[in-house]
């Protein structure tokens, strides 16, 4: 669970990022979940966009991704979800040490 300090930090980090994963008319399928998983492992913090042509609900998508991938939703705004998860690969952990420091 993220604290408000952590959330604020992650929001500021994500501000200038471009969405990496887009959910379109095929909805939230396994391929998209794999993309999200891989992107989170590589970067820890990503933006996911729901395109105009999807029937998916942003809240449901965020919930499913949280449950299945074990990530945290930093923010849902419009059609964009910002997700965070500590990378399982040590060399990719650029953001998580800073996030942990905010808890002290």
From TrEMBL:
Domain CRM as annotated: residue spans: 1-96
PROSITE patterns xref list: CRM
Keyword RNA-binding: yes
Keyword Transport applies: no
Gene Ontology MF annotations: RNA binding
Keyword annotations of the record: RNA-binding
Record protein name field: RNA-binding protein, YhbY family
The organism of origin for this protein: Streptococcus equinus ATCC 9812
